[in-house]
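Hi C.,

You asked whether I'd gotten around to modeling the 180-residue construct. I have! Everything is below, sequence then structure, no commentary in between.
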Amino acid sequence: MQADIDRILIPSGQIAARVKQLAHDITQTYADSEQGLMIVCVLSGSIVFVADLIRHLPIKTKIGSIAVSSYKGKTTRSLGPALIGRLEADVAGRNVLLVDDIIDTGQTLRLAQNELAAQGPASLRTCVLLRKPHRAPRDVRVDFVGFDVEDVFVVGYGLDYDGDYRNLPDVAVLKPHVYD
């Protein structure tokens, strides 16, 4: 697996420090909320990020998930998002934080935000680990961003290529021969 990595883009220690800071910022935002927070995790890429993030949240927190698929098989090009698993929890009247691994084209987040907004939450904010600022559309609001990254295909810390590499502790760039 390591032989497939071209370079480490964000090392695990830097990720851990930023996740802790994001949790602090999120806590400050929701500090006055008596009802706490409903975190909605976009599966599967954000699982590792959400797991680390919630460990640093000292506020009442519920967790739900939705499943969205944009990449099928061995491709680095999005085929467009499709909702493949709906949220089981009721978010009406709740403070909701949608958490995803990356905003690239914005299609996945737009779909998830629209799905949640239609359920009438008291508030809806979004947090992503990574943002590609040159590609992310301005009309898709993101309230909390871990890192801005260059426009390369990344894996690790939950992000995958054809289901592999999610378990890497760093965010890394694959060697081109792996996905060409």
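If it helps when you're writing up: The chain has one domain: 2-179.

Thanks,
B.
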